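We treat protein structure as text, and this decision shapes the records that our systems exchange. The tokens are whole numbers drawn from a learned vocabulary of local backbone shapes. One such record is reproduced below, unchanged from the form in which we store it:
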Amino acid sequence: MSRRYRIRSVFTLFLVSYIMVLIVPACLAGYLYHQAMTMSREKYIESEQGRLSRSIAYFERYLEQLDSTVLKLSYDRDLQQILQMEKPEPGDTEVIRVVRFNERVRDLLSAGQDSSYALILKDNEFVFTNTSVIYGLSFFYEESRNYENMTASKWIQESFSSSSRDFLPMQPILWMNESVNALTYNHPVYGYERKIVGTVQYLVTEEQLVSLFREPLEDQGQVCLYSQDGQLLATLGQDIGTDHAVDGMETDRGYVETDDTVTLYQRSEEGLLFTLSRPDNVAFADAYALGKTGWISAALCVILELGLGIFFAWRYSRPLQNILMNLRQMFGTGEDRRQNEYRQLTSGVQRLIQSNYHMQDALRNQKERERRSVIDQLLKGQMTDEQEIREALDRVGVMPGQGKRGILVWEMQEEAVMEKIQKIDGICWVYDELPGRYVLMVETEQGMEEVKQRVEETNIGTAGIGRDYDRLPDLALSYQQAMYSLRQAQVQGQCVLRYADLSSRNQEIYYPEELKNKLIQGVCHGGVKIVEEVFYTLYKENVEKRFLAGGLCRILQANLAETYLRVQQEWRFNRQSTPEQLMEPFESAMDMLQKMRPHFLELCGEMGQMQQHQKSEDAKRLIEYLENHFQDTQMGVGMMAEIFGFSESYFSGFFRETTGESFSGCLERIRMDHAKQYLRQKDAEVEDIAHRCGYTNAASFRRAFKRVHGVSPSVWKKENP
């Protein structure tokens, strides 16, 4: 080989190597940039999904409070009498009954809530509001509530079109001569035999929704609320020109990214869809900044490699060497070859520190979610064992003492919240239940009177204080008392009220309305444990604390007898005790409670049997319907839910609870049982069997059959002639 050829080969190899040295850092920088963008997107989506989840939880808690007031109204005996009335003439005695019922409706529906409600009865066209009673639906629409984008007939149709709670889209509404932009929450009211007799409509104003979704609306955020069928109900925040394809959002949560916006979405348990949209340049500002840094780093790498090439040439080129030496002498520059190694080491340490920060943030968020879950279960009365509650609170970092403790519910503005709360001594934990509402568990040796004085000294917001108890499970009752006191404080225009003060002013016996409703709910749902808890509370409050005796004990017995007869009359139980049996003589308050308790437990047992029988009948009816219609290729959860008058989400849980198996599993089992019968027939073809069993084609039938039986239909037919 000639020397000239060898020089060319060496030069070519050197040129290729040098080009590779230039390309590899650029490719590596591009890959790191892509990974950084991906991680930044994932971090943004996770954090924003968390903020959207919290706001959705606030919204659902707000709806649950509205639902609880309507539920109390459904069991009201006076409502059934009003439904039988026609429009009374002036001076008629029935007018007094209507006015009294309107006052009762006002106490149930407006206490602790905005007064923008209306109870609308369907048949006799009575409308009850916070100010008056109006007769005639069209007259009420024209004079008191006028929708900008809806006629009177359309409004009446929409108000009674659904058997479950739903919404009317947000729009300008003329309510009591004032224009408000509000979302209408429509909750049906049921009478006997699950028949819709009316509806309660709440107006949820745009300001209330913005308060609930304050976190996701920050930084140019836009929140949209859609119904189950994809109808846009409300749009909050800045208008950034988004047009969502709601039909494509089939999963419970996820995100959609377009050229200029990023949209996250979540579905609630009721099927409502919430979307959070934000401009792309705002959502991924950190990612774009990081990407710019990455490309600058890649350019620096290329420049460094070019510098190394020039250095290599300098070693073998005297003219170039002289030029660089002159430049070096002119500017006095020098290269530190270890500089890049130091940068890599520093960058690696910084990444480790940043990763540790992220892990700590995730652990703190998980701890906070667990803490909120434990406190929420405790306040709702879902935890009844003392030791279990202590272990759960200890696990989330809340250490209750051994003394008396009670619940304080405080509504105030969010400015300097912790500064005001810290003035209360003995606080174990603070729970932000809703924006502007804080639930505090307070331990004090001096009693809740001292806590009341501390709250009054702040002169901020409105507060309600429940009784203090020794047992942790009783905090659920203290929370209910605090909420009741808060509503009374708002009605009376006071800063703070104690439940103990309300009890001493109103009655000497302890049998509040919330405990009465809890007893009714326990009997109507067959909840023996709930009835036992109610009677234990009656014993603690009336026997151990008040030492109830004489005529007051007789009054408590009469109140319990009235509750028993009311439940017995509404549900028509077979076991019926007469008033004489209920009002039998007793020796003490404890003896009276022991004699009244078996009557309610008997009703619980019968209600449990009725529910079990109803569950058996429902399961039989569902299975029978599937047996008769399994050939229908359109058979699915949506079709069954529409036939039986339920929503899809509720029907899925109802079917599983009633039959003990999922809807898809039950339908597939029935189809497979019939398929095996058809396969045993000699002239049966797989294509024909597939259509007879409700499958659209033979391929889907074969896949389903093999998934269930492990073999194809033809193999099974050979093995089972």
Notes: The radius of gyration is 35 Å. The first strand starts at residue 117 and ends at 121. The chain has 26 helices and 17 strands. Residues 3-74 form the longest helix (72 residues).
